[in-house]
Amino acid sequence: MLIDHAKIYVKAGDGGNGAVSFHREKYVARGGPDGGDGGHGGNIVFRADKGATTLLYFRDHRKFVAKNGGNGSGDKFHGATAEDVVITVPLGTIIRDAESGRIIKDLSDETPFICCRGGRGGFGNRHFATPTRQVPMFAKNGTAGEEKELLLELKMLADVGLIGFPSVGKSSLLARISAARPKIAAYHFTTTSPNLGVVKTGDEQGFVAADIPGLIEGAADGAGLGHSFLRHIERCRLLLHVVDISAAEGRDPKEDIVTIEKELERYSPALSERPRIIVANKCDALDETVVDIPAFEAFVKARGEELFYVSAVTGKGLSDLVRRVAERLSDLPPMTVFESEMPAEEPAEAGDGEVTVRRENDTFIVEGEWLKNLMGRVNFDDYESLSYFQRSLIRGGVIDKLKEKGCTEGHTVNIYGFEFEFID
């Protein structure tokens, strides 16, 4: 069973906290601060694997969380950096942001991609020692790791897509020209998932072909199986439109072509403009008293497309078809790789970024990404650290925003669980 889309939640690990510690050793007076730094949190990494062909694993695995970095300790000991969580997906998987639907990354090669970065470890108190501050009683907490809800969508990597009505012989053609062995039977929708096959053209050259099942009238609206699998031909550089030239099921090959082309255009106008070759299969069973061949050839010529008569049963015409496909591919642009649609993000620093203030009775609640990170750096029992906190609120415009919202002396301000009385 082909599972070609999934929704998952991923979260990178938080950075470890820096330590507040002072060196203690016999005969060493005033050893000074020696708090170690926290370790970095683990990343969420995606890696494409040629051997994977489906997103079935994600039907039962929807949450991936990396471990947090270790906390620092005394004697300048650094906290452990957490291991990355590596998620393996098939080649051709597109990662989208679940909320906006924008593309984050197209995994069209085997280069690992860091989707969520782990939080950085916080500095220990030894970093904050100065000639005038020789006993820093505070350290820096680690920052939070990134977290996202993602949509995974598989668009197969194939140079050539075989399209057409059910039972026109697409799977039989693929089995004849490649080593693929799809299920073949004499009934509609035998093929329930795309099949890939490597077609060799000599001298270690070749191309990848995909048999796309279930295209019928209304496929773009979800009829049959087409709505589920039209996405798999979006990368194809060349389409082979297969028709049953014997008209064994009583359909007109010309009408079949028109019907499928309309579905392609409705699904994607760009896809409908993709180069194609008309493949008239089952020519071994052709009865020219049933099918008007001159009219069919005139129809194809009027469309400006090439026509090949082949038989998946006898092998007639297949070598010429494969040779021509290879020639066409050599002149076509490379396979489509979808670019990221996400804006570049910059890390939020103290005083840099949006701050929201809302009022609940006589309490003003303040939130902001940089404020969340700031809270982890402050030791509210230390005078110097508290002074740094107050300066950051002024510099970041928090005090001005509180006044704009009507906060006056005596009101309570809550910033991520830390409450204090506002003093103007």
Explain what you see:
The chain is α/β, with parallel strands linked by helices and about 425 residues long. It has three domains: about 1-155, GTP1/OBG domain (Spo0b-associated Gtp-binding Protein, Chain: A, Distorted Sandwich), CATH 2.70.210; about 160-290 and about 320-330, P-loop containing nucleotide triphosphate hydrolases (Rossmann fold, 3-Layer(aba) Sandwich), CATH 3.40.50.300; about 355-420, GTP-binding protein OBG, C-terminal domain (GMP Synthetase, Chain A, domain 3), CATH 3.30.300.350. Helices cover about 20% and strands about 25% of the residues. It has nine helices and 18 strands. The protein has helices spanning about 170-175, 225-230, 255-265, 270, 295-300, 320-330, 370-375, 385-395, 400-405; strands at about 5-10, 45-50, 65, 85-90, 95, 105, 115, 145-155, 160-165, 195-200, 205-210, 240-245, 275-280, 305-310, 355-360, 365, 410-415, 420. It has a six-stranded mixed sheet, with helices on both faces. Strands 3-1-8-5-6 form a five-stranded mixed sheet, with no helix packed on it. A hairpin with a 2-residue loop joins strand 17 and strand 18. The longest helix has 15 residues, at about 255-265. Mean pLDDT is about 85; it is low at about 185-190 and about 345-350.
DSSP strand count = 18
Total helical segments: 9
Major sheet: 6 strands, mixed
CATH homologous superfamily annotation of the largest domain:
GTP1/OBG domain
The percentage of residues in β strands lies in 15-25%
List unreliable stretches of 5+ residues.
187-192, 346-351
User: What is the fold named in CATH at topology level of the largest domain?
Assistant: Spo0b-associated Gtp-binding Protein, Chain: A
